[in-house]
Design brief:
With 352 residues, the protein is α/β, with parallel strands linked by helices. It has two domains: 141 residues, Nucleotidyltransferase, domain 5 (2-Layer Sandwich); 183 residues, Nucleotidyltransferase, domain 5 (2-Layer Sandwich), CATH 3.30.420. The chain has 13 helices and ten strands. The chain has a five-stranded mixed sheet, sandwiched between helices. A hairpin with a 4-residue loop joins strand 6 and strand 7. The longest helix has 34 residues. The two termini are 22 Å apart.
Amino acid sequence: MKVLGIETSCDETAAAVVEDGRTVLSNVVYSQAARHAPFGGVVPELASRCHLEALPEVIARAVRESGSDWDRIDKIAVTYGPGLATSLLVGLAAAKGLALRLNRPLAAVDHIEAHIYSIFVGPNARRLEAMIPYICLVVSGGHTCLMLVEGLGRYRMLGQTLDDAAGEAFDKGASLLGLGYPGGPAIQSAAAGCDPSLVRFPRGRPRKEICRTAGLDPVMCFSFSGLKTALLYHLRDNPLPEDPARRRQAVGMLAAGYQEAIVDALSRPCEKALAKFRRPLSAAGGVSLNTRLREKLAALAGAYGVPFAAADPQFCGDNAAMVAGLAGAGRGLSGEAAFTADATPDLETGEI
């Protein structure tokens, strides 16, 4: 089965064709990062306008580059949440129109579930049956959570951020340091070769009463708001040097310390989950591209004698291959439920 996937949940306009839930025949992603960079973050109205402009050609390229034609597309799949409402609406409208025009079934899928599935997509992907049950850290621009994956559609929430997502922490830190947007790659680049121990930032500890109210174990939850404030106050009390060379050095040291604090805050709950379940560990989402995070998580998994798996770099950020793959594996709303699905910005994973 060949599935055409469409992804417009935030600021990436993407389409892909995936066969049998695993084999990626095409994967086209149009990044809007340059359009949003002057504003230091994603502007929802601008994002939806960019999707409207780019999506027709992105879809056409995905079909063309797959070596298929429209007659050989068996299903249309699209993200319907969570994400930015106006961005989701663009993809949903396009997918519904295509499915009706081509008389093909439609699947409406969960964006976070697609990230979880991303480690099973591509030529070097893991086999689902070899991993389950496993621990999955989903870490992206807008989401940070830790789950126990017991099977497709069977997810147990172990912990989540109680304030900001890790990606938001990277973006804010990069903005404060004058490194631009998107923040994750900018901070990683600035931190390269610098000693993270020279400037130590606090590691966020979620308030126990809030975690327990949500029914979560505090040791498996995340918090990043205090870290952002710590960097802000550090820069207020220790202004960056005016000399360009000294300024670059200072920014590098701060970026390294800040990145290490985020990585530690993400790793600590994973270690607690490994100690409790002793099952394979995976990481998905755009922030999982971070080299230092991958090193730390791989070392943790190795210490517990379990495998570590991360998605292929091209499937870490928002992409449509994971959407098409998940639908090809049989997940998502289908039939009338898919055609009547509305954009659901606050969709809870596991509701399908």
